[in-house]
Amino acid sequence: MRIETVQTVEEIRPEHITDQTVIVIDVLRASSTIVAALSSGFASVIPVQTSEHAYALRAPGVILAGERYCEQIAGFDYNNSPTALQRAKHTGERLVLTTTNGTRAIQKAEKAADILIGCFLNATACITKALSQNCDITLYCAGTRGEFAIEDGLAAGLMVHIAKTISSAVHTCDLSELLEAGYLRLVPVLTERLLASTTGKRLVERQYTEDILFCSQIDFSQIVPFVSEKRILLSSSSYK
Ligand SMILES: O=C(O)[C@H](CS(=O)(=O)O)OP(=O)(O)O
What we know:
Blueprint: E1 2-6, H1 14-17, E2 20-25, H2 30-39, E3 44-47, H3 51-56, E4 62-68, E5 71-72, H4 82-87, E6 94-98, H5 102-108, E7 114-118, H6 123-132, E8 136-141, H7 150-166, E9 171-172, H8 174-186, H9 190-195, H10 198-205, H11 209-215, E10 223-228, E11 231-236
Parallel strand pairs: 1-8, 1-9, 2-7, 2-8, 3-6, 4-6
Antiparallel strand pairs: 4-5, 10-11
Helix pairs in contact: 6-7, 7-8
The protein binds the ligand O=C(O)[C@H](CS(=O)(=O)O)OP(=O)(O)O.
């Protein structure tokens, strides 16, 4: 089984998607927000590209979350904030989510055999689930505004490392190897690296440090969000 890593939203090619299990990784913050929302009681997350599309979906039982330039969108209920959604108590509502990078990556991967949502919070559960699908795996890093994001690369490196521990049949591209080595080198200072990353600095400047601390927790959850008919639903991995 092959694992390949894609560095940014725009770099995905058809061969990364066709017959592949794609894990969309956007640590800061879309993937972490989706894990937090499904943990806190939302029945599903609906990723959309524009705030207009989100407004049009407003209805009873629908909550809107998202950001532009890291800030909450006017008229929305929440920012793209995992800690705000983690604290929120919801039972069965649908969350409509629009973000700069993460929700675009989910749309671009829509023709994959399977799409899973991964980050540090659910790394082991997510890669375990991906390996069980028996397809080659693409670790699709969303990055930030067209650039590689170190936090996504480190989460990809962690997943590569776990995959190799689980299966000796895993082989990877050179970038995946590099990211695994980077993860193993930087894991003792993971939170500091996230705070010092390009997106991390933007979020700290805007008083969202709490989100970064939350997103740097490894294996906080066993939830594995997956995409089905343009919605993101919840499944649990049984790796324990
Ligand atoms: O606000 C976020 O979490 C980021 C904004 S940025 O463009 O990366 O600065 O969006 P996301 O789509 O979650 O990466």
